[in-house]
Amino acid sequence: MAMTGVLRPGHCQLRVLDLEESVKFYSNVMGLKETGRDASGRVYFKTSHERDHHSVILREADTAGMDFYGFKVLNKATLDKLERDLLEYGVATERLPAGDLLETGERVRFVAPTKHVFELYYEKTEVGDGLGYVNPGVLVPDQKGIAPIRLDHWQIHGKDIDGSRELFTKVLGFSLVERIKGEDGETDMAIWLTCSAKAHDIAFVRDERDNTVHHLSFLLESWEHVLRAADTMSANNVFIDIGPLRHGITRGTTIYAFDPSGNRFETFCGGYDFYPDMQPYTWTWDEVGTAIFYHTRALNERFLTVVT
Amino acid sequence: MAMTGVLRPGHCQLRVLDLEESVKFYSNVMGLKETGRDASGRVYFKTSHERDHHSVILREADTAGMDFYGFKVLNKATLDKLERDLLEYGVATERLPAGDLLETGERVRFVAPTKHVFELYYEKTEVGDGLGYVNPGVLVPDQKGIAPIRLDHWQIHGKDIDGSRELFTKVLGFSLVERIKGEDGETDMAIWLTCSAKAHDIAFVRDERDNTVHHLSFLLESWEHVLRAADTMSANNVFIDIGPLRHGITRGTTIYAFDPSGNRFETFCGGYDFYPDMQPYTWTWDEVGTAIFYHTRALNERFLTVVT
Amino acid sequence: MAMTGVLRPGHCQLRVLDLEESVKFYSNVMGLKETGRDASGRVYFKTSHERDHHSVILREADTAGMDFYGFKVLNKATLDKLERDLLEYGVATERLPAGDLLETGERVRFVAPTKHVFELYYEKTEVGDGLGYVNPGVLVPDQKGIAPIRLDHWQIHGKDIDGSRELFTKVLGFSLVERIKGEDGETDMAIWLTCSAKAHDIAFVRDERDNTVHHLSFLLESWEHVLRAADTMSANNVFIDIGPLRHGITRGTTIYAFDPSGNRFETFCGGYDFYPDMQPYTWTWDEVGTAIFYHTRALNERFLTVVT
Amino acid sequence: MAMTGVLRPGHCQLRVLDLEESVKFYSNVMGLKETGRDASGRVYFKTSHERDHHSVILREADTAGMDFYGFKVLNKATLDKLERDLLEYGVATERLPAGDLLETGERVRFVAPTKHVFELYYEKTEVGDGLGYVNPGVLVPDQKGIAPIRLDHWQIHGKDIDGSRELFTKVLGFSLVERIKGEDGETDMAIWLTCSAKAHDIAFVRDERDNTVHHLSFLLESWEHVLRAADTMSANNVFIDIGPLRHGITRGTTIYAFDPSGNRFETFCGGYDFYPDMQPYTWTWDEVGTAIFYHTRALNERFLTVVT
């Protein structure tokens, strides 16, 4: 089987300051579907297109940010093997029992060198996208708002991105796809990694602030949907950080904006497909503006400094 | 590593009736780049975006059609293992030496139950896409004509598609993504298989005519490029079979047309991403029109009957 | 003032076989908004974007087809002058009083040489598009289904298209934009006329069947909306005649389909802008396929023969 | 005839600092076609789609900026009448003889209250778009670079925009389409005027710097072309001021950038159609950010201050 191991970003738990305001935002503006609430008050969402029970979990808290990042893996054997590999590599793991997250099987949790909390799982109830598997048609029903296709990836920040890169590439089977080198021409300032044929499933940026998140990202259908997303954000008074624009890195087209708690999110589309016979792209420090914002070729302060 | 085994369709050798007329067509209308000619007179092409030396090889012959279909695999170990697995499964293999195709390493060839000739290889000279791997920018240079991104997949016909499905799924690691069931509700009339995260890397259709090809397919960037491709075809008197349209199967948007030799080709974009936790879609016989041509929900005779 | 005289197609009264079924279709699939019903049972609709009270009026009848075609003119002085000009040209007119159509001022009605019933009016209540005129924003609210921007034009059939052309160009100030010549190279088989900067506001086709309609046409925002319209039609079991495709004539991109009564409608976008320093385009009879269906360059029988 | 009087922006003469560098830019990056050079060294360009001999004239000078703005009118009678109307309104006019600009008939020149030099003309040699008027097809040949459809409009600055508005609406037949009111709720800070069915053919902004230009604007085919234009600019080291983005005013989607002399230009598409039964849109001062840059709802200093 060609697709094995870690499949994709599966879920993440986002801290929000006002739960009901955030539920409204993610329901009505982002257009996610609420699929459940658990005993601890967490609210579960999926996109209209996603088949699994949830991808975004909201937890009310005093500070914004992300509690943990979950990847779905192929099956139980993969989960068990990856846990053994992690332990062998020297990373402590924790097993969380099935049911700790709604409709989700057991999870293997670990902390990466950048101090982010990751978890692997292979079981989550398939609630479907409303089309079924027999004569499905093409239009996923009940779309509203921005209506992304899926939770796609995260960009997260921390000090030891070399350590996290080694862990993800050596143990979890990720590939390095793009990198920005620092002024010394040696140090990786940011890296884009994939576990699939996407240009990125996760990105790490070197930052003194360990265990922080720059953005969670949602995939859209087309550049026209990127425009409609920007229009929808503005019509709903969502604060747009930057965009629409194209990235040099990944070649995706995108918008960045903030949820009501100040968590940055991305709605993007496009980007090339990754195959493992490709070499990683390298961007030099003098071209970092072009790498990030291909059109203006200049970064803005807010994009560089705000993380949660 | 998450992407392993068979990576993707890598090349195919197409028979054309008039070589120079076909070279003009694939150069000027399709917008492929000629990368070489070998001692036997074959002409090699790649798309502007492809990095490997070639994906389409033209051979002049008395009849149109496809000589063989090549998949790139991850590395030598994969090639050797897949050859062993084929032999163990009872499929005879043949090793073709490096250099038999220009800039291409050794290939392992075998015949599938549908009588098509397949081959696996892992080495082909990377000639690049003109952007390089350092500060690449985003616009692949030297695009003209239809300018597809890549050779994407093939739809091929033969009697024993059950046999080919078993071979591809059990030995080569492909996954079944979609299927059309016959009137009996049991027989697979057509199957779509992937070795990656694409909705299909190859499709087999049940047909009395063994070792025939319905179309080779090229990926485009967007639905607007599909329109431009149709405009470009018409401006160049290319005979369009059908389209632009959307498929029910794979949800891609597409045009079918014929090259000067009568080989059908597709230029398409879109379609969902495949993950192995997805169940295969099944289309029933009464919905076959919707499955193939989602908008008109009716097949045309030419689409059903012409193969080469 | 640069835009004067006849402004645009303003409304038309369509005969439908089953009123409530048609109301459902035009409301839910086409996405028009019902704005009123009158004492005679007629149902009035506007698109979300249109500001005037209505553009499509449905009347239940035993046969499908169009009762009359209304153009909005600039003001009362224009209406009075055009009536005088019609009379002077030898065309009888009839004044219909304000209120005969809901929220509509007096209308001047006449019959063209092709036996179609036309009317001119200048007053209709502005109900708005929901954005208002102060800080309007950009997203017209309450869009659903196909959600066209406006009723755009009609293609209508009759014997004496030369007579109708003369009437529209000499009296009503329309310009000839495109024409298809017959086999003799002389006779106009079809003509496209504009009263504005559009490539067409009305088209006449030579046909033995006087006072028939080929289609009423709705404008969409983009080629991607054309695709979504086709998807929406199929998902709602609307019978698509042909498309998506591009026209040679006008260069618009389009779909043709049928409403539940068998009235053909078009949902299209694009086409060049007309300026009166442009010469009319002429298509010769041997290129009629290319003129109509630019991609396939061949007409289908149904498109040629079905009118209501 | 419904389209009469002033038809559209027809040409403008742009001052550039280095003629050959500018010729290269407008030829290779913008993708205009050079159509002639005159005895005084001026270089004439048209877009691929434009039929008239030229729309942009480059003149080498010590300062950037625009020498004059020309509108094409319907015919000689219109030219003569508008000259009489200007004189009667108290505006001095000057007749420039045919041939003063290459392939152009006589022009009537006048200075508007904002001190910009305007001219009207009705004759210019039609060199065509390469498609002809018989069986034209749809793809305009020889497109390269950004390849706009046409010179579309200008935004120009000066003190007495009330005076210029009165002149354009009362004498030249333009209509007011949108306006931004100042903090007092009374003063027009900027106005958008049309002489056709476009959302704007010219815009005036209140500014102490008389006879200055904010940008000249080129129309593109689609939002996807806006993206490609931005990509093309960046690949050619063109300095992008802002965009891609959507305007609140006109609802167009756009990019602003600078030519090698520092003249700002716009490449845009979209926007609603104007009809004279529409009321003007008013934007209040507190929504000026939304009016101009709909997504970020905030202006940038450079956009506000740089004119040439």
From TrEMBL, chains A, B, C, D:
Spell out where the chain crosses the membrane: none
Which N-terminal stretch is annotated as signal sequence?
A: none
| Alphabetized SUPFAM superfamilies for the sequence | Glyoxalase/Bleomycin resistance protein/Dihydroxybiphenyl dioxygenase
Occurrences of domain VOC (ranges): 8-123, 150-270
| The keyword Repeat belongs to this UniProt entry's keyword annotation | yes
Q: Which top EC class is given?
A: oxidoreductase
Which family would the database say this protein is a member of? Belongs to the extradiol ring-cleavage dioxygenase family.
For this entry, the protein name equals Catechol 2,3-dioxygenase
- What is the source species? Parathalassolituus penaei
Recall the taxonomic lineage recorded for the source organism.
Answer: Bacteria, Pseudomonadati, Pseudomonadota, Gammaproteobacteria, Oceanospirillales
